[in-house]
Amino acid sequence: MSEQRESAPVHGDLTEAGAGGGLMLPRVFRHIGNTGLSLVITLFGLLLVTFVIGRLVPVDPVLSVVGERATQEQYETAARAMGLDKPIPEQFAIYVNSVAHGDFGHSNLTARPVVEDLADAFPATLELATLATILGVLFGVPAGVVSAVNQGRWPDQVLRFVGLLGYSMPVFWLGLIALLVFYGQLEWVGGPGRLDTSYELSYEFDVTRHTGSILIDSALSGAWDVLFNALTHIVLPVVVLGYFSLAYISRMTRSFMLEQLGQEYVTTARVKGVPEWRVVWVHALGNAAVPLITVIVLSYAALLEGSVLTETVFAWPGLGLYITKALFAADLNAVLGGTVVIGVVFVCLNLLSDLLYVAVDPRAR
């Protein structure tokens, strides 16, 4: 009897633990469901906004197709073919269905399906923004840490001045100066575009397209001459964009580190004799990494959609330059298609930021 009485609480504890474990599973599924529902609502709102913008812009999409010299009959035929004679709700339903099937219509500028143009332009922007973000993280995070550790001293003043220049100088001006000095005068790097004209045929015939990135595809194909030439062209726009990313990331890292270095756990670690490098680079930076991840991801998203001026200056055939040309040509299908892609990228990167936040910070789980 005594053994049964002693074992009863153990059995009860296991029952409670099993019940608690059983409650965790529905909670996880509920969280996943809420996240998925939020994602669907956000994307639906994005499509609604782009559709409304397409209808409010003072550009007649029918005229951009048939031209101003078209007859009234030709105009009405084109409008019916484009579905513009239907009620607005039905037009929106057709628009959502088309986008869901990857159909953004045809571009009036290139006479190709917009989705094919985006498939060519987006990898160029992705390549540029990714390398710029890597550069910004590799130099911006250490710069912010050093600046915070030396608050008020000369390293802090120098690094803050460098960051201030990154915020103050217009990107198009810095790009033009960089081209003038390093390409025009010193001839250290390649000029505008992704490749020299003499290498474009080699890229066309000798490189198999796997990702759309010249650097990756040429390396996979063993076209080392194309790879080297592409590196000479990409280094300058990457440095220009990376400098602005560095300025933002270093500033935010400094702010987060100053907050962590003032916490009691840092003082306790120092009193216990923990080496200073470990206090700063392991404990303080480890806690600052949680909000810093969000900053880096959003900075990456901003470079993906905000590199229009850089792509224009360096004639980089990316998404920003494509949308800019489409705007000047009143090519609404291309503009709206590019806008949707940028919006989807922002939504996905925000979701990635939340997932990384949970992975890094156990308290968020």
Automatic annotation (TrEMBL):
Keywords on record: Cell membrane, Membrane, Transmembrane, Transmembrane helix, Transport
ABC transmembrane type-1 domain residues: 122-357
GO cellular component, one term: plasma membrane
Membrane is among the record's keywords: yes
GO MF term list: dipeptide transmembrane transporter activity
Pfam families (alphabetical): BPD_transp_1 (PF00528), BPD_transp_1_N (PF19300)
Protein name: Peptide/nickel transport system permease protein
